[in-house]
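Hi Y.,

Following your request, here is the sequence exactly as I used it, all 477 residues.
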Amino acid sequence: MAHKVGIYTRISRDDEGDALGVARQRQDCERLADLRSWQAVKVYEDNDVSAFKRNVVRDEFELMLKDLRAGLIDGIVAYDLDRLARQPRDLERLIEIYDDRPRLEFATVTNDVNIGKPDGRTMARIMVAFANKSSHDASRRIKRKHLELAQQGKDSGGPAPYGWRKDDRTKVDPVASQAIRDAQREVLAGVRIGTIRTRWQEQGLGNPREGTKRMAHHHVEQILTNPRLVGYRTYHGEVLHGEDGQPVMGEWDPINTLEEWEAVCAALAERKRQQPGKSLARRYLLSGIARCGLCKTKIRGQNNRRWTPESKAARFTYQCSVVNGGCGKVGRVGEPVDRLIAQLVLEEQRNRASVTAVPTEQRWPRESELDEVNAEIAQLVEAERTKQITVTTLLQLLPAKERAREALKLERARFYKDRKQAEAKGDTANLTADEFFSLPIERQQEIVLHSLSAVLIHPAGRGKRKFDPALIEPVWR
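Below is the corresponding structure, written out as tokens. Let me know if you'd prefer a different format.
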């Protein structure tokens, strides 16, 4: 009876995605199995998968080991030993199975190593050790190449980041870059990343990964805070600095100014510090803003499950809840309350905008001080390089200068964050009610809270009553 064997094929990179490399391996392995009078019952294919990287799991390799251990196959045919293993630990796992089942078959197309025999195992260990060293050497050369490219401000290839054209990574994509800038302004105005992510998914923006149904939250955040937006070159996720201490600039067109980018990064960092792990999602305008007129407990919106587009029932209500510590005696249909508050707030802000505003400082006043600190750092580094001072002296003087530089950069980021946030939140004087309600709910709440500290909803008594605006009391700031 013919032995049933599995064929294992693998290639580390398949840039074209056509799987031609593993197909050629499979054909040669099938030919070898026929010559040995073995029956090839299954092909285990790991296409575009590394056997060297420790954090990569080869699903088909793991399945093959499981089937081999369970006795579902009687051996393995591979194109070459390095297709099976480039890490000694993977080879030892395979050898362990062959130790337990001495009758297992093994063959490769390119050599005559048989790990079913003691001599073959010794030779296999030597070959995998050399293959592992070869991978280490190649990895070291590739990392050095990428570092050199990064230091020169050059791109390292790969898919174009969102915001730049797919056919030319140095040129800005007008549609994607505008989506990024719009989303950044929303972030500064208080809109959640989740709201932006949902809208991008509906509009086909954000370049989601192929095969994913939902864009990841962190993916959107990375797009909006990518240092590449201001032309900074990164290496291993960090902004790369040159010998002069300045960020290395890449050879591509930027999308943001430094002020815009720093403001967005600072706003998101501040949001995480203030409310770590807390969801900022809201469904109703006055949730957390409205309060019961009797017990003064915060009131939240509640969806009416009986509501349908054809019914006359209320879509949602604001209800004082006993569960949340309230008296449970006050409730009101939500939509008329929202409309009233929106009209009052927009009118108040239009009146306020008619008063001449005090002009805000456009540039950070300590920019020259930061330039001086950067120049001093560059001078110290150059002095050490030209042997004017020792390394010991440099390391004594440099940390204080670096701390001063980072403190100034943080202050600059806060300055531009506050100014950009004020710009993003302040442009409400000409909004109509319909335009107001078309904004994201977080933006609506920001506008309301700019004018109001709370809204008191007073009881209306029993029975059906006509909406009475007098029972809705805005508490102005």
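Residues 147 and 445 are 46 Å apart (CA to CA).

Thanks again,
Q.
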